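Predict structure. Input: Vacuolar protein sorting-associated protein VTA1-like, 313 residues.
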Amino acid sequence: MSSPSPNLPPCPPQLKTVQHYLKIANDYDKREPVVAYWVRLYALQTALKLDRKSAEARALLTALMDYLETFKKTHADNEAVTSDVAGQALVENVVHRLFSWADNEDRNERFNKNVVKVFYSAGLLCDVCEVFGELTEEVASQRKYAKWKATYIHNCLKNGEKPIPGPMGGDDEGLGEDVGGEEAQGAVGHSGGADLGWSHPPQPGMSLPSVPSSASAGGLPDVSSSTPPPSVPSVPHSLPQMPRVQPTPDAVNVPHVPVGHTTSTGVKLSPSDMNKAQKYCKWAVSALDYEDSKTAIDNLQKALSLLKTGKDS
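Output follows.
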């Protein structure tokens, strides 16, 4: 179910960084409205750090707060809105699909503007995962790599050079090539548009390309829990002392997995291993919602392998 994009006031120059995320949110209003909700929450948190005093910034902040409050009320029965755990699983699933599609295109040497856009968008959505707390090691690595790859492929195409597929020095290299937000946004969103086939320089954030079902945003993951979902803190409407709006992860009653948990097969798994196995299962369910059996089988096999051997394939 799609939702119309909110009618927000213009983004002032001092909040130009936020504009990239607002554009991504507009794209996901049609694809996955709950993802758009979390993106705008991240945009609000970022904007509050940059400027909360100017009239232009306050107008945008007020509109974002109104949108977030209304969305929470109208989607109060959606666990991916009311629960940080379910919301994080959904956003990370979208990142996983976008990153996997772009990485596959890159490694098969199909270099074009769509690959640049998808890598870039995956990197921005990794930023959004910060609303749930500290990034996992996997998401942090994907963010570095996606932003670096977007800039690298764009510059190669702009200069008429053939990009090198995959990490520059093998499977373990390239992840350390961290490209700062402004540098990546500038390379992808402001320069050299004609060289990539755009009729005019793309605007910040850019529209996401249409990608196959295996790369598009998946449906809501089936996150089952006997614990009632926690409420997201109410977004204030008065701006003089605007607090930082942030979901409270500690309010989520996450089942405790003891260190050294032993499965029925005799394999000892750490809490992070158990969480990773759960994610694979959630991604498999999400893929089935889109009749993508190949991705579902791949994720289920990874979960089984991890549970049986204690090693992530």
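The two ends are 35 Å apart (CA to CA).
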